[in-house]
Design brief:
A five-stranded antiparallel sheet has the order 1-2-3-5-4. It has eight helices and ten strands. It has 246 residues and is an alpha+beta fold. The chain has a single domain, classed as Aminoglycoside phosphotransferase (APH), C-terminal lobe (Aminoglycoside 3'-phosphotransferase, Chain: A, domain 2, Alpha-Beta Complex), CATH 3.90.1200.10. The protein starts with a strand and ends with a helix.
Amino acid sequence: MEEVEVVVAHKERATLRVGDVFLKIDADRARADAEVEAMAAAPVPTPEILWRRPPVLALAALRGTALGRLGEPSPASPAAWAAAGAAARRLHDAPLPPWPGRSLDAIAADLDAQCAWLVANEVLPARVVTRNRRIAGAALRPWTPVFAHGDLQVTHVFVDGDEVTGVLDWSEAGPGDPLFDLATLTLGHQERLGDVVAGYGADVDLDVIRAWWSLRSLRAIRWLSEHGFDPRPEIAVLEGCEDTCP
């Protein structure tokens, strides 16, 4: 008998696996609709939709394994990381989806609120938060929006050898900053940035990618903690800037 595996679960969404079928449950109908639309429009491999009965979306398992995991060394080859960069470029060159993206002002306001929470609750030393908030400021600039995945974590990119076989979890997709996707992909795997950029095939501002590493980590820690996830990898990214960031 096949067992039910809880892949991820929190107050907003849950994903279960039964054999080779993933069941994604999302109570937000509009977000789920946008995810399905994004998967259909994306010019990169995505999981096959087996059926949909809101709030449940059934997806076929992807071939291969995740590119890596945050907080662990990635077993994937440099060519696989370059292929992930090339897939991101294909996505970013596609027509924009019709729904709005994140507001720059909203991101900045949330960043300030999260920094205040981190200091007030003594999650990190104030000097670490202050330094990373300064670094994060480089990401808060106008950008030309592209079709962005919005949550391009290493666990959402599957590879088989040097080939990208699919990209998961399009619930945050929409118009966005292309460098945010590249930063999310390489968060905690900074040593792979050169491979990703080589596959992406365009000039990118590395300082802005580093800024997004800090910004994403600062904003994520409270949410992760309150939803039962381990924020230590993001904390490690912020603490690492003490020694490696300019």
